[in-house]
Amino acid sequence: MPPPRRIGVIAYEMEGRSSGVGRFLEGLLSGLVEARNPDTWLLFFKGEPFAHPLFAAAAAAGVALQPRFDGRPRMRPIAWEQLRLPRLLRDAGAEAVFSPGYSLPLLTDLPGLLTLHDLAFEARPEEFGPRERWRRRLLARIGAQRAARVLASSRFGANELRSRYQVPPARLRLLPGAVAPRFFEAAAAPAGLAALGVRPPYLLWLATLLPRRPVAWALAALAAALTARPELTLVLAGQDRLPQRDELASLLDESGIGDRVVR
Question: Which of 2, 4, 102, 165 is most exposed, with the fewest beta carbons within 10 Å of its own?
């Protein structure tokens, strides 16, 4: 068995309102705690200290999950990752660095493990502003070439990495996203759902609304299902990030079944 390692983790996506990448990382770390992983995981946050149930769970399980807060909440994440993090990794004695999302710090020679959940900025460049598009492309491409291992969230994503970035199979690993155990244990809460206007049975959209995720398809599916199940509704649970302010309202009006949709 190899000796325990000190692994730096880019963890700022868990700060504040957790993102999809943040939830992915939280689930992964929860799995490490459950498995009693022997390594030391140095969690680097750019902001101020905060409490998280995961920290207490790790301590109780005897797993070395060590949060490190840099106290720079206003610093832009990418600037912090590229300019501050390399020194923090070095000072902490990290032996490797893990990024749960899209980029690695360039100014370090530590072995890297990089997760690339998708390449939407390559496949759908029109959905990103010029600066963001080129930043994402540059850092993802360099990261994919330099990382000791690259994680893909799906077989489709792995194929994209092979074809677009020429990541060889020897450095590519598949790590599909999973549903956190707490969702299987959640008790039914009819009163809470009713307060939100949600009543079973319903179809559930569980994702941020983006152009590359056509909500019109979900509306079409609902329209088809209403023929046999007229009591169905569609619940949209996700932040509206469509480019036009009234785009969702227009889609609902045009569908003719907007009254069957709960936001």
Answer: 2
